[in-house]
Every structure is written in structure tokens, then in C-alpha cells.
């Protein structure tokens, strides 16, 4: 039996059975052959002085004294042929890393890398708001939420999602962290109060105006006010150009 395009899902115990024309002419080979399929993998450990040590390993039996190849961002790292690689400067050495055994380069390990800058999204259900933090990383990241109120920053939760009751105003952000590093999202502002409103009047009379967020407002039109927008209260003196009034009732 030949297995092509071998995958980890092919790891099983295989046995054979043959038959003859005799009534009892049947035989099964036991216990069979166990096939283990595994990738090379890269693990990280911290050493003295803040140096991170990457180790390339496999549960399979490798050739005697194999030569290893390390890749950073897909390019070979020169003069590194052992199964260990030390990263001494987080800025200079930043990137994704993988490894392979010379002669078997097509069977390299999956790349490992620190979290990319997280993105934050928001959903609202029955008055409560859920923020979700997502970052691309390998291995997967753990997430921590922070809240800024005034000049204070407090840890506000853990996990990829954060559910807040109505009225939980503030500035929130999340951090993503794995053994290779961490990254912080942009700030996300929650403001309770007006979520829907009507453009009531423009002074002097005009049919529309484009506000700073880029939304086109038209006289008499119902508009959605994003939670990222400030509570719109544009009011000018008689020498000004326009006035926008928003209803304070949610719809």
C-alpha cells in the first residue's frame, strides 16, 4: 500500500487481510503497523537576559546529526544550522520563524509569530454591547481588555470578547499576547445616549452637509450616529454657517 500526499489525518494503525479458496483460508495480520505523522514544530523558551530561544523538534526519528535550516519571514537565516536559534533583539529579530531539515525542506514546520495589531468590533443586543478583539498570531493569542477613564487605566476583563451593560461609557482597548510577543489595538470609544437622531434644521438653509466623519446629512433625513462619533451638537452664532439638532430619543 502506498500513501501519497501524506497528512496528519493519515495517522492510524494499518493491517492487512488475505483470503484463499479454503473455507477457513482467511488471515489478518495483527497487531498491524502504526503510522505516526507529525510536523516539525517550533517552540519558544525564555533564557537569562531576556533572550528568547527557539527550538526545532519532531517526535519522528530524524537522520543522524541532521542539518537544520531556519527561516525568518520565509527567507533562510544565514549561519544557523542547529536545532536552536536565539533571538536577542526583539526589534531586529521581529518576524515569523519556521524550520526544516536539510534535504527535506518541503516538510518544514508551520511558521510561528507574535500577534499582529488587534482589531476591535462591536455588536449591540438588547441594550448591552459586546466588543470583540481579534489578532492573527501563531500560536493563538490570549486577550486582555483595558479601560481608560480620565487619567486612569484599569484592566477590565480577559478573553477575546467583552460584554458591557448599557451605560458603560469609556475608552477601551485590548492587548493580544503569545509566547513570541504582544500587540495593542487602537482605542475604542463607547458613548451612551444618542444612537439615532434626525437632522432638524440647517442655518443658513441648505439641503445637505458632509460632517467630519464623512457621512452625508440631508435635511429631514433620519441618520445613525456611530458610537465612535461625538454627541453631535453643532451650534454657531449668527455669523456661523449651520446648526444641527439631534433628537435624544433612541429608536
Automatic annotation (TrEMBL):
Record-annotated membrane-spanning stretches: none
InterPro entries attached to this UniProt entry: Ig-like_dom, Ig-like_dom_sf, Ig-like_fold, Ig_sub2
Record-linked Pfam families: Ig_2 (PF13895)
Domain of life: Eukaryota
PROSITE patterns, sorted: IG_LIKE
Domain Ig-like: 31-121, 128-191
Protein name: Ig-like domain-containing protein
Organism: Pygocentrus nattereri (Red-bellied piranha)
Lineage of the organism: Eukaryota, Metazoa, Chordata, Craniata, Vertebrata
Amino acid at each position: 500500500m502506498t500513501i501519497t500526499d501524506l497528512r496528519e489525518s493519515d495517522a492510524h494503525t494499518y493491517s492487512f487481510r488475505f483470503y484463499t479458496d479454503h473455507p477457513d483460508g482467511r488471515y489478518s495480520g495483527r497487531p498491524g503497523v502504526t503510522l505516526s505523522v507529525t510536523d516539525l514544530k517550533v517552540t519558544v523558551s525564555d533564557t537569562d537576559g531576556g533572550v528568547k530561544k527557539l527550538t526545532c523538534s519532531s517526535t519522528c526519528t530524524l537522520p543522524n546529526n541532521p542539518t537544520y535550516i531556519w527561516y525568518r519571514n520565509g527567507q533562510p537565516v544565514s549561519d544557523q544550522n542547529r536545532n536552536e536559534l536565539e533571538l536577542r533583539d526583539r526589534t531586529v529579530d521581529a518576524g515569523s520563524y519556521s524550520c526544516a531539515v536539510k534535504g527535506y525542506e518541503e516538510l518544514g514546520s508551520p511558521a510561528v509569530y507574535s500577534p499582529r495589531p488587534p482589531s476591535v468590533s462591536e455588536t449591540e443586543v438588547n441594550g448591552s454591547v459586546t466588543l470583540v478583539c481579534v489578532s492573527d498570531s501563531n500560536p493563538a493569542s490570549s486577550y486582555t481588555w483595558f479601560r481608560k477613564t480620565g487619567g486612569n487605566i484599569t484592566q477590565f476583563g480577559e478573553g477575546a470578547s467583552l460584554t458591557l451593560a448599557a451605560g458603560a461609557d469609556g475608552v477601551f482597548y485590548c492587548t493580544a499576547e503569545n509566547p513570541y510577543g504582544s500587540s495593542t489595538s487602537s482605542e475604542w470609544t463607547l458613548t451612551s445616549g444618542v444612537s439615532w437622531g434626525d437632522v432638524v434644521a440647517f442655518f443658513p438653509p441648505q439641503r445637505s452637509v458632509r460632517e467630519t466623519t464623512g457621512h452625508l446629512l440631508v435635511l429631514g433625513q433620519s441618520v445613525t450616529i456611530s458610537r465612535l462619533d461625538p454627541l453631535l451638537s453643532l451650534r454657531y452664532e449668527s455669523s456661523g454657517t449651520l446648526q444641527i439638532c439631534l433628537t435624544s430619543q433612541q429608536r
